[in-house]
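My convention is simple: the sequence line spells out the residues, with the fold written below as integer tokens. I include a record here:
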Amino acid sequence: MGNQDAIDLLGMTASIILPFFNVPLIIRMIQRKSSSDISLVWTWGVFVCLWGIQPAAWRSADLIFKIFNTTNVVLYSGVTFVVVYYRWRK
């Protein structure tokens, strides 16, 4: 395995794992039944930016970018849903 292969493997692994760090955030909000410590501006800003990047990821030849952004859009959409749910629930 060459250096480029090792770098690609590391990037691919990180691109899959990193978005899963959204899961503990979702779980913590559900357990507390609150999202009051999460900024709505930040939540919507990240959400809109991820969806704004998504078309470029779909068109990209870079598989790591595609996997990362698609996984992040899916899991961060969960964060956005939970934040908004607990804010509107009050």
